[in-house]
Specification:
- This protein is an alpha+beta fold.
- The protein has 14 helices and ten strands.
- The protein folds into three domains: about 60 residues, no CATH class; about 90 residues; about 180 residues, Intergrase catalytic core (hpI Integrase, Chain A), CATH 1.10.443.
- Helix 3 packs across helix 4.
- It is globular, with a radius of gyration of 29 Å.
- It starts with a strand and ends with a helix.
């Protein structure tokens, strides 16, 4: 039972005075199932906190009937989870989770009661995804099962949905928590060599707008969606700093839209190399005076609108073809990170520049780059010891 106490009585030197209750929402529950005796749980500032306390109290007592509907199915849980997380998840991630769960999970467990779900059911879903022909195919994929990375994505969607339901007392447990997620074979990121990057930049300089874009991509390790979203107020040419505050995202429901923060939801400041500052100054001078109010996009079309992401990728593909290199615009980001690591920059600093969640991500993705550095470190150590021994012998 939850009821609202509007006032509390306070005795003062001038008599009794009614004040607004500081914690007006009172929670009481039956002492045990079927009992008429009520026990006091607590007082809370808001009704939402009181509802949560009530659910927790029933959970602690072991009575789940008052916590969630007895006929809740996995399909109902999915609909609640997707609706609650549509605004929180990255656009593409939300679309992909929905697509995979509707194609592979809900046909098998959609009508299950939430309390009847077991780890074996999740395992059956993953087995079917790994052995049966995929339901939705791209060109050239017909007849093949889901790849390891997509299987891992399906598992992640199930795990997140069940974890969300457990936190809200909609399911008793997250049955996916004890299962091992599908393994994905590690693939080394494709990178350009320093000479190839130099050829790309040399050709890009001849492009009126994309020259500055490619120079910035090669020297900041920023993502395509981040660079396309920067405005002149994000660029401090005097200090040589780029403020990465927003980025573009894509989803089927909303198309391409601008959002605060980056892929990880964070913001960061990236130092600008001298050639990047020079390229941005030239870009600013090339734009009309009416778009120097500090709010327009740095890389814009004639109408001041941001250049679409696909057009940026296609333009870079033409530049790469002329430079006789193979790789995408994202390869340029991998190359920048790789060159920084090979140059001796520590992983923590590289992660901060590239916008990785942690240095662990950097070390995992670019372990192959650091393998040569480890060998050089051992050779340097051995050389130092040998030099010291020669000095002692003299």
């Amino acid at each position: 039972m939850i009821y609202e106490r509007m006032y509390r009585i306070k005795t003062t030197s001038k008599g009794k005075k009614r004040n607004r209750a500081r914690c007006p929402w009172i929670v009481r529950i039956p002492e045990h199932k079927g009992s008429a005796r009520m026990i006091h749980v607590g007082s809370y500032r808001t009704k939402e906190l009181a509802e949560e306390a009530k659910r927790q109290a029933f959970e602690d007592r072991g009575d789940h009937r008052s916590v969630r509907p007895s006929n809740l199915t996995i399909r109902d849980l999915f609909e609640r989870w997707h609706k609650a997380n549509t605004a929180k998840l990255e656009g593409k991630s939300c679309d992909r989770y929905k697509q995979l769960l509707e194609a592979y999970a809900l046909p098998i467990i959609g009508n299950f009661n939430a309390d009847d779900l077991a780890p074996i059911h999740v395992s059956d879903i993953l087995t079917a995804a790994a052995t049966r022909p995929r339901i939705r195919c791209r060109k050239g994929e017909a007849g093949t099962p889901l790849g390891p990375r997509t299987q891992q994505y399906l598992f992640r969607a199930l795990h997140r949905m069940l974890r969300w339901g457990k936190k809200r007392r909609l399911v008793r447990e997250n049955v996916a928590a004890d299962l091992e997620r599908p393994e994905v074979p590690r693939r080394n990121a494709r990178v350009f060599q320093a000479e190839e990057v130099a050829r790309i930049l040399d050709i890009a300089r001849r492009e009126p707008t994309l020259g500055a874009f490619v120079t910035l991509a090669a020297t900041t390790a920023a993502r395509r969606a981040e660079l396309a979203a920067i405005t002149w107020r994000d660029v401090d040419l005097e200090r040589g700093v780029l403020h990465v505050r927003q980025s573009f995202s894509q989803s089927r429901a909303r198309g391409t839209y601008l959002k605060e923060g980056t892929k990880n939801g964070s913001q960061r400041d990236v130092p600008l190399a001298p050639q990047a500052v020079a390229a941005l100054r030239a870009q600013r001078d090339a734009q009309s005076v009416r778009r120097l109010d500090g709010g327009d996009f740095v890389f814009a079309d004639a109408n001041g609108n941001a250049i679409p992401l696909d057009e940026l990728s296609k333009a870079f593909a033409r530049i790469a073809k002329r430079a006789q290199v193979q790789g995408s615009l994202h390869t340029l980001r991998h190359s920048a990170v790789s060159l920084m690591l090979r140059g001796g920059t520590d992983a923590v600093t590289v992660a901060a520049i590239a916008g990785h969640k942690s240095s662990t991500t950097t070390l995992t993705m670019y372990a192959h780059v650091l393998s040569g550095a480890r060998e050089e470190a051992i050779l340097g150590l051995a050389s130092s010891i040998a030099e010291a021994r020669r000095k002692v012998a003299q």
